[in-house]
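Limitations
The structure tokens in this dataset are predictions for the assembled complex, not deposited experimental models. Users should treat interface geometry with appropriate caution, especially where small molecules or nucleic acid strands are included. An illustrative entry is reproduced here so readers can see what is and is not provided.
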Amino acid sequence: MKPASFDLIAALLHTISGLVIGPDKLYLLETRLAPIMKAHKIASLDALADTIRAARPGGITPAIMNAPSPLEVAVIEAMTTNESFFFRDEKPFAHVRTHVLPRLLSTRPAGAKLRIWSAAASTGQEAYSLAMILAEQKSSLGHRSFEILGTDIAREQLSRAGDGLYTQFEVQRGLPMQYLVKYFKKDGTSWRINDTIRSMVQFKLFNLLSDLRSLGQFDIVFCRNVLIYFDQPTKARVLAAIAKQMPADGVLYLGGAETVLGITDAFTSAPGERGVYERTPTAAARQFAAVGR
Amino acid sequence: MTQPGRTCLVVDDSRVVRKVARRILEGHGFAVEEAEDGQVALATCRRQMPDSVLLDWNMPVMNGIEFLKALRHEFGPDRPPVMFCTTENDISFIEQAIEHGAQEFIMKPFDEEILLGKFALVGLL
Ligand SMILES: C[S@@+](CC[C@H](N)C(=O)[O-])C[C@H]1O[C@@H](n2cnc3c(N)ncnc32)[C@H](O)[C@@H]1O
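Predicted assembly:
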């Protein structure tokens, strides 16, 4: 592959989805884009780059983010890494259950809806895990209304999420057997999430790099195992934008290999909790708190 | 080296499955005992109670659920933790396992990740 071809595809990925790939990831391009090249009858990665370039006389600019072509979309989606499993790393989910839910339930007016966002939902396990936690707490939730939104840039994964159909392998990663029995039904050799849990979650195609404001405010945000694929400026930009979609007492969860440290001041790590972040109080809020003391 | 609290009795009539489970568990600090059916397993437990049991369902002489009932009857409701590991994968089997005091349920075929993940779920890792 010519360096110029690699650069073009790397620029496309970075501009549209935030994904950073170095030249050491050439093999990834080759393996993941092969099916697309076959489907579009494109013979090589160079030819693929030429095709994309020819359709973009203005070059790869931020403006194309809002209107990627079908070929570009296919390339972006093929390059995403979609691994996920139920109750991944367990701790964040336990933290929601034991700390954040009880606190939000006691501080928010009874009529206020609580909103939860799984910001890189992939095949849905994270969003459904959160729904199962809520379902387990049903008695203490009373008539409180909730919304769980799962978003992702990858259509195929999102449509799997919406189906709620998982292989035997997938339901054995992280999911306790009690939840399997309670919240899934067998469907052939696979397992389907039941209607109660399914109906608690909405999925929506959404690019994290786009304007988040249309999504509204979220009390709890899971943005796990996606920032690792971005460079520092992109991480900082996304985190700052997420902070704006959260109230002062909102809580953000990042993946085990992710942090806000050295990237943004918008969040502060929750004392004694790995991967849990709170919004950093604004100067005005700090002053207000000082006056109140 | 085996760490304290880490013995596992692997009960399966397939020598191959016992060997695979043994290799994975020994790689994570467990000392492994083997039994080829429920009756042999029960005798092993009477001699020296393991810290955990990995249990097949369908076996000659005494099957997994009969073993579990006998174990819980003789030694009390929840120790040691028992994880089924079986080709049975109908909800009714998992429900029976729960009813009779199993802590987890692995559906074959399994791999290292699933096995260790389930051990972690019940607090053994
Ligand atoms: C490894 S999965 C994480 C799944 C889940 N959050 C977890 O931790 O198990 C990463 C997901 O991020 C999605 N993704 C990557 N770039 C994105 C972007 N710019 N906007 C939205 N989703 C993106 C990918 O499609 C992929 O499904």
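Some entries come with short summary sentences. For this one: Chain B is about 40% helix and 20% strand.
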